[in-house]
Amino acid sequence: MTVEALLMAWLPRQRWFGGKGRDVDGVAIVSGATLLEGDPQVRLVLLEVSFTDGDSDHYQLLLGATSGPVEQRLEHAVLGAHDGSVLYDAVHDQGAAGALLQHLAAGDDVDGLSFINADEVDPSLSSRVLTLEQSNTSLVYGDEVILKLFRRLQPGANPDIEVTKALSDAGSTHVARPLAWFDGVVHGQTTTLGLLQPFLKSASEGWAMATASVRDLFAEGDLHAGEVGGDFAAESDRLGEATGDVHTLLAEVLESRTAGPPESQQTAHQLHERLEAALAIVPELAPHAVAIRTSYDVVADRTAPVPVQRVHGDYHLGQVLRTADGWVLLDFEGEPTRPLAERRALMSPLRDVAGMLRSFDYAARYLLAERGGEPQLAYRAAEWAQRNRSAFCDGYARAVGADPRDEVALLLAFELDKAVYEVVYETRNRPTWVHIPLGSIKRLVGAVG
Questions:
Q1: What is the pLDDT of residues 124-142, one digit of tens each?
Q2: Contact call for residues 153 and 186 (beta carbons, < 8 A)
Q3: What are the percentages of helix, strand and coil residues in the chain, rounded to 5?
Q4: What pLDDT, on a 0 to 100 scale, did the predictor assign at position 58?
Q5: Which of 337, 354, 352, 339 is nearest to 427 (CA)?
Q6: Residues of the chain predicted below pLDDT 50
Q7: Measured distance CA(234)–CA(392) in Å, rounded
Q8: DSSP state, 449?
Q9: The model's pTM
Q10: CA distance 143 to 138
């Protein structure tokens, strides 16, 4: 079997593959850089995946080839056999991962790859792959640093490094500073392939902390959300303040301005386009389409100016870590499925606020679903979500000097847009979860006047 045929069968099964639900027409290796010679040989290859609808995507893969057999711990990463060799995804191979780190530490140029070193890096650290569900792949080295490999590539600079570096250079304590990164060339443009940052090993993930709080509430017989020992509202308040601090600094160090009515109309047009695309994928959205469109039309009719700036773009509880010193925000690349130009565009910071408000609601509804939607817990889940949504807005308002809840129409439209995105995402990746964002949409459309 050819390498391309192996890739065509293997890629759609990967968690990070963004073309789920689409018919793959072919896979081609467009470039490759050899990181290790011998047996195994390891190459970093850039792939172009073509779809039957005429579109295409680009991905990167650390491709290992050995005369075999592969080690038992690598069997799950095998693509198949080709020309007397066994091919496998070499991010799980410590030798291959170590070669990447060594090139980053040295600041090398290798077969069209440019490794840029901004800080001292220990090249001898051993690696492990994080098993969290995500659209990229993260390698942790010695519990000291973490390398994020951007699997799906769009030509140009990734906003994650651009925004994180700008914040770090300005002295923000709410981001992990970039230590090194490496670039390749996709369609003639320098494109970010990976980013190395400190690994915050003692930190706690926001999603894990929030869901633990919901579990504590559900375990109590008759206490309200603010009465249980695991109350999360104080942390939600601090997270809101940290978010506001980051938005304020971003407006200072990167471009920001005020958008007028034509841009509000363009924003509404984009919201409508995404809804129409979602309706074609998730018919269950249809009963709510009229109310959602009404909310978007309010944005189109807006005449008041809207402050716009660089934002996170895919903000939720899984993108924040609580350290001993406070909250740290991660992954500023925006929604990976959106075009790069859109992810780098100036937007209302209320998009990030809406994303986090959705995440509080998601945490409560997710655990409610785990308990079979018990009616006696539904009220408590809603109370927990509302308490933490309010606390987040309180902290945010304190940091920026304006309460996001005063922008009712914008915030509602952005929340609906995020929930529509979640419905599509769950349909493609976790169909049994679709009812969670659908339930939120039912609640949100009730607020549409």
A1: 999 999 877 678 999 999 9
A2: yes
A3: 50, 25, 30
A4: 95
A5: 337
A6: none
A7: 9
A8: -
A9: 0.91
A10: 12
